[in-house]
């Protein structure tokens, strides 16, 4: 059996390629059903986000990964050669890859928040669809756990790493609760859209959007529950705004010192914050000298972004160590799972022997008292537990030594478990993958 992941991501394919593989929830469910119907695909999970589409699967051997490749090709209608954009990791590297993905170490922006919930969702869809078993259940639960650990025990997801996010975080530090603030956005492009999204996430209820192309202002305002304002009237709107965030991309200032000087008396002493994230700048630097006005430009924000990204990079080192530690524990868990069917069969066989011998013995003692009967029952259970303890401990210890195959053969031969073991393997798709020895050292 082989544990594999096949897919593509922002590291291997440009956006025009990735978008061809973006799957809706219904498409994911259909894909899982399609893959699981194959004879040699025992378990599968499909993870599809804006930056990656990946199939995690348990297959008979590596050659069966061609089934996964064919499925990926079908998504594009064979419009282009898919193989040049795909990566495929097996066994230990597959485990490591999923853990790094869940920990946001493989993301376009290291430390981003969405990926862990996306991994959870992909796993839940597959589990509810019946396409996971012992191997992928174990793997995804471990990956989700290490993702949570990284987010709670490091600062990898702290602080802004985009200018629009930094702008919102910046004003939040100044004013505190943004839910009561009125924000005026100058511009309706991508930067303003991202800013609007961050504002909404921070609870801002009143957002004005002003843009030279009024229809685009209306569109953006409607998407985020805001109010569109013609560009010629934005200074009238600024009378009621607490914060103005500008990113129009025009080649000249659209906010000049004279207009702001005339604005401030109408505000009756209420301060106002201007955040200029446009290049070229939208706000005349002289505006910052006016009483009651705080002006911040993109240079200040980019310094914050660079500093925060450096901090995330440092925290990523600690996260990598957590992933490697979890790798060791997960591989040990998988090696134990390889023994579990045999150990179950062993304890079941011994229990049947115990019950048969006890039943025959009690049949020869018809006058035995209930208390004595219970004492014999307890004694027989304790004897079996004591006898089996050392072999079971020895087996679980061998699970991390690379001698699994030797011990499995020995135990099956000594206790005549071969027939039972074969039946178990024929009837179950679980616990059939034996990981190779971990050779990559834990990061220090």
Write the layout of secondary structure elements.
Elements: E1 2-9, H1 15-18, H2 25-36, E2 41-48, E3 52-59, H3 65-76, E4 87-90, H4 91-102, H5 114-128, H6 134-153, H7 163-175, E5 182-186, H8 190-201, E6 206-211, H9 214-223, E7 227-230, H10 234-238, E8 243-246, H11 257-266, E9 272-276, E10 293-297, H12 298-363, H13 370-398, H14 404-414, H15 418-427
Parallel strand pairs: 5-6, 5-8, 6-7, 8-9, 9-10
Antiparallel strand pairs: 1-3, 1-4, 2-3
Structural notes for this entry:
This protein is of the alpha/beta class and 444 residues long. The protein has 3 domains: 2-153, Beta Polymerase, domain 2, CATH 3.30.460.30; 163-302, Rossmann fold (3-Layer(aba) Sandwich); 332-427, no CATH class. 54% of the residues lie in helices and 13% in strands. It contains 15 helices and 10 strands. The protein is elongated and about 110 Å long. The model is unreliable at 419-432 and 437-444 (pLDDT under 50).
Distance N to C terminus: 32 Å
Helix content: 40-55%
Q: Which regions are unreliable across 5 or more consecutive residues at pLDDT < 50?
A: 419-432, 437-444
User: What oligomeric state best describes the polypeptide chains here?
Assistant: single chain
SS-derived structural category:
alpha/beta
Main traits of this protein?
15 helices; Beta Polymerase, domain 2; Rossmann fold; disordered C terminus; single chain; 444 residues; alpha/beta; six-stranded parallel beta sheet; four-stranded antiparallel beta sheet
